[in-house]
Amino acid sequence: MTDVTTATTTGTTGTGSGERPVGTPAFDVDRIRKDFPILSRELPGGRPLVYLDSGNSSQKPVQVIEAMREHLSMHYGNVGRAMHALGAESTEAYEDARDKVAAFVGAPDRDEIVFTKNASEALNLVAHAFGNPTNSDPRFTLGPGDEIVISEMEHHSNIVPWQMLAARTGATLKWFPVTDEGRLDLSGIEELVTERTKIVSVAHQSNVLGTVNPVDRILARVRQVGALLMLDASQSVPHKPVDVAALGVDFLAFTGHKAVGPSGIGVLWARAELLEAMPPFLGGGEMIEAVWMDRSTYAPAPHKFEAGTPPIVEAVGLGAAVDYLSAVGLDAVARHERELTAYALQALRELPGLKVIGPEDLEDRGGTVSFTLQGVHPHDVGQILDDEFGVAVRVGHHCARPLHLRFGIPATTRASFYLYNTTAEIDALVRGLHHVQKVFA
Amino acid sequence: MIAESMYQELILEHYKHPQGRGLRDPFDAEVHHVNPTCGDEITMRVKLGDGGKVEDVSYDGQGCSISQAAASVLHELATGSTVEETLAVVDEFTRLMQGRGKVEADEDVLGDAVAFAGVAKFPARVKCALLAWMAYKDAVARSA
């Protein structure tokens, strides 16, 4: 990948924020871009690709692609059950990936990392443990009179599993409202999170607003009432250092494909004693200890939750992805995205009729910027940005329809940034938006 | 670029100045159709008269330029025409939209609706163009 050309997308990000600690190497976005083969391709008609949709799914570095190719080419076998060399190599690679992910998120114990197929499955797995007749642990009992608390800014994957849980147990679903600025409204937290609350599940960072939620304040109240706290960290883990032990929460879910890893693999982290108390999710191969015709006993976590042949190559890819991110440094990634976000918020202000949905300052905010453009529907914005400028953004409700209803809008256009994006790409977005306004003037 | 061919002047005109927009009485049937993938929606009312004459097509909704302009064009084409004639146009329009850009549009049948021919090249947008037309077909069926 040495002959890639980035001439059309080169940009500088040195905005002189002065936040880089002395002695750390400069973040070289041009060098990073060379690791991502797709960024040097052209779209039909010779358009350069300007990929601003990493909040939806990120692109993959050659290190991840090669690790997966190498595993498939030379080491592939089933894991945990094959008594031969390839089985051993595959098992080692799969379990190595678990070690890497555990270290990446600061899990105290590697067995606290459960591989799932995505963050949705991780959230469903936890929801399944509540109000389950096979689980008598008082922390997980749930029925009429008990309450589940989420928020209005959640992705559907952190709404629907809890709606389904409420429907099957008779428990009540409640939620934190969102302020006009796009922050969680915690003013009513004492009334919302009470002794009736069993589980609170909120986004660590909003996939629409970019808002980073105050985990400390929520956790303090959750602990006061003896409930459990889950974080949907799909939009935070890929972008900044996240340490589950430091956070002090109970459950955390994220997905590989947003973190320069492959699709098909997600992660649930939970405190070991909770995983031990939780019932299995799917039944099948490799999640058992012993099976009789009328009953089974189960393997300890994490295998209890990994029924069937897991996403082996995807786990290897995720291991390579967290290696890659660790080598670049999550602090550096976060700093780079902060610079991009500052640049974007400033640049978007020059467009008349553009309204940012979410915080307009950088405090507790990640690199996701959603907005509306007066008189133009986001689908038209997205179509013209893509077709004329090669700018890939996401348009629609981004799987957060209730949040859009809250703001009284059907849809937004969302630009989301990652370690490989440049200010030049944000300039391309702004140029594209000017053209959109011209077409619809 | 190809999207330019989709955003025909006629479509943009109808989007900015929709014809016959707003729900009106009396009506024989009212339907509400949504496109769950993008959230576009339309409420449509149809009032039929003697001999299958379409006396009024009124609608309200929200969505992208394609879906809203398609409703406006449909209103112009259908109002004053007959059910039989308009259903023939709906069929031709559907055939064009589902033709992946490879179907030659019959301008004699389609009239202004031929402006949507470019949309057929964008699979993700075909449903936008068809939303109002499918709602109309449904409303007419319910009026009978």
Number of helices of chain A: 14
Spatial shape of chain B: globular
Q: What's the CATH architecture name of chain B?
A: Alpha-Beta Complex
Low-confidence regions of chain B: none
The CATH homologous superfamily name of the largest domain in chain A equals Type I PLP-dependent aspartate aminotransferase-like (Major domain)
How many distinct beta strands of chain B?
Answer: 3
CATH architecture annotation name of the largest domain in chain A: 3-Layer(aba) Sandwich
* Multimeric state: heterodimer
N→C terminal distance of chain A: 43 Å
Q: Largest interface, per-chain counts?
A: A-B, 19 and 22 residues
Q: How are the strands of the biggest sheet of chain A laid out side by side? A: 4-10-9-8-7-5-6
Question: Which structural class fits the helix and strand makeup of chain A?
Answer: alpha/beta
From the spread of the alpha carbons, the general shape of chain A counts as globular
Number of domains of chain B: 1
Q: Could you tell me the strand content of chain B as a percent range? A: 15-25%
| Mean pLDDT across all amino acids of chain B | 90
Domain NIF system FeS cluster assembly NifU N-terminal (chain B): 6-128
Protein name (chain B): Nitrogen fixation protein NifU
Pfam family, one (chain B): NifU_N
GO molecular function (chain B): iron ion binding; iron-sulfur cluster binding
